[in-house]
């Protein structure tokens, strides 16, 4: 509770950074649990910073040893279970749950130092919360035996565990990483995770042992799904890559081909290429149009969920393997600009790089959007698919009993009065907020848990092949 120093920085396409101004906020003078709208003039710069600051006591964050594990105490665990039970679903909607992570040990890590050893420490990230272990020096099989507790703000967040080698004043060296979606956590079971590379697409050297416990309220988690997702504070240092650009173009091509094949199938029904298929389609068309009601739209989507749920798992496993093969790319090589090039040429290179990078990001967004829709119906995340089924069932009943004009009227009144009821409300699209929680095919590969038998490093694979 002191002075909060704020700096405003500007960054151009050439990665040049410039500090534009600074300002200060006295945290101790602000009331707790209340939105404070502040307009702060910037020092040494024209303009001001408009901020909305809310001070909320941070509960649930802790670092401890195994001997004082919070959830190991039966009375404390019972108290936490009571806090997130269904009876308390409408109390403190932002407090969704709690995650406890036991970082036990790592085995067979990469030797980062000349001595053939490493100085490993482990960094845990959940959303914008970051905690880390202590460093164990000169060891390739460190045992941390630490317990970390995180408050859950979104049940669809992903726990990222990264092992680094401490390197004095220099940036730490990367030793491996693993990403674990919260909904895939198996409570109270020690698990061995194969470490992956920075892109989370290939096995790296070593494994890490974790034990996790997850307690959350499903109703609060479901409501949070339809609100904007919290953005990561750390910038994504993604670089331009020909391989990633080619992969994203291929992903968009697959989605386009799926849409094209669907259109060709409908055309074939009209052309009577298959008499039986066209006859069935014609009867279905007549019956549907003659008896069509608006509630049949969510009902049809609900039937699609049921069909994919009852469908054999063979196709789903094959699609995961295909996506893993398609996203099997090597680590990206850095492109170094020659210092001897003229300034005009460098400017053009930056301009072309920005354009291609923008195209790459657009392809990424288009491909991810289509894959998220597909993965929603494919039950990739059962929690989200079940939630969508529940919403569609409710929508079917509402559209069956309530005239459409009343529904549109309620929707319009809510949209028009939203800003009046809450001046600081952020306009959002609930459907897009829901889809943002569904993983794309690339994220499915990144979040997939590798088997221990496939934990060979790329270097070992090359040697074995020779």
UniProtKB/TrEMBL annotation:
It is found in: Membrane. Pfam families: C2, PRT_C. Gene3D superfamilies: C2 domain. It comes from the Eukaryota. Residues 74-195 form the C2 domain. Coiled coil: none annotated. The keyword Isomerase does not apply. Keywords: Calcium, Membrane, Metal-binding, Repeat, Transmembrane, Transmembrane helix. Residues 321-340 are annotated as: Disordered. The chain crosses the membrane at residues 279-307, 381-402. InterPro entries: C2_dom, C2_domain_sf, MCTP_C. It is a multi-pass membrane protein. Residues 325-338 have a biased composition (Acidic residues). Belongs to the MCTP family. This is Multiple C2 and transmembrane domain-containing protein 2 isoform X3. It comes from Equus przewalskii (Przewalski's horse).
């Amino acid at each position: 509770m002191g002075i909060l120093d704020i700096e405003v920085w500007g960054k151009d396409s050439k990665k040049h950074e410039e500090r534009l101004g600074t300002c200060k906020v006295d945290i101790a003078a602000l009331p707790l649990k209340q939105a404070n709208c502040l307009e702060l003039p910037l020092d040494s710069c024209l303009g001001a910073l408009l901020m909305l600051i809310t001070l909320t006591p941070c509960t649930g964050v802790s670092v401890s040893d195994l001997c004082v594990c919070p959830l190991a105490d039966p009375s404390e665990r019972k108290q936490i279970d009571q806090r997130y039970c269904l009876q308390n679903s409408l109390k403190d909607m932002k407090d969704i749950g709690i995650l406890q992570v036991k970082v036990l040990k790592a085995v067979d890590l990469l030797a980062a130092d000349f001595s053939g050893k490493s100085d490993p420490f482990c960094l845990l990230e959940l959303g914008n919360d970051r905690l880390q272990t202590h460093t164990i020096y000169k060891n390739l099989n460190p045992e941390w035996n630490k317990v970390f507790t995180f408050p859950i703000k979104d049940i669809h967040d992903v726990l990222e565990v990264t092992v680094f080698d401490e390197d004095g004043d220099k940036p730490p060296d990367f030793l491996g990483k693993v990403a674990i979606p919260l909904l895939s956590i198996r409570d109270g079971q020690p698990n061995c995770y194969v470490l992956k590379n920075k892109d989370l697409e290939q096995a790296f050297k070593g494994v890490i042992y974790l034990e996790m416990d997850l307690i959350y309220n499903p109703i609060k988690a479901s409501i949070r799904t339809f609100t904007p997702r919290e953005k990561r504070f750390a910038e994504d240092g993604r670089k331009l890559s020909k391989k990633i650009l080619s992969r994203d173009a291929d992903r968009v091509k697959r989605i386009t081909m799926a849409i094209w094949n669907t259109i060709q199938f409908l055309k074939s029904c009209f052309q009577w290429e298959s008499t039986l298929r066209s006859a069935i389609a014609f009867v279905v068309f007549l019956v549907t149009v003659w008896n069509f009601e608006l509630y049949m739209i969510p009902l049809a989507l609900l039937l699609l969920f049921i069909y994919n749920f009852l469908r054999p798992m063979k196709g789903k496993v094959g699609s995961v393997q295909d996506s893993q093969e398609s996203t099997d790319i090597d680590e990206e090589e850095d492109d170094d600009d020659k210092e001897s090039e003229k300034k005009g040429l460098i400017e053009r290179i930056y301009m072309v790089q920005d354009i291609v990078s923008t195209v790459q990001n657009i392809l990424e967004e288009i491909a991810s959007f289509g894959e998220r829709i597909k993965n929603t119906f494919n039950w990739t995340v059962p929690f989200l698919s079940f939630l969508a089924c529940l919403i569609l069932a409710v929508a079917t009943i509402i559209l069956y009993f309530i005239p459409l004009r009343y529904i549109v009227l309620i929707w319009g009144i809510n949209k028009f009065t939203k800003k009046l009821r809450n001046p600081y409300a952020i306009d959002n699209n609930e459907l897009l907020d829901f889809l943002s929680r569904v993983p794309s095919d690339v994220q499915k590969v990144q979040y997939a848990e590798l088997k221990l038998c496939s934990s060979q490093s790329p270097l070992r694979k090359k040697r074995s092949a020779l």
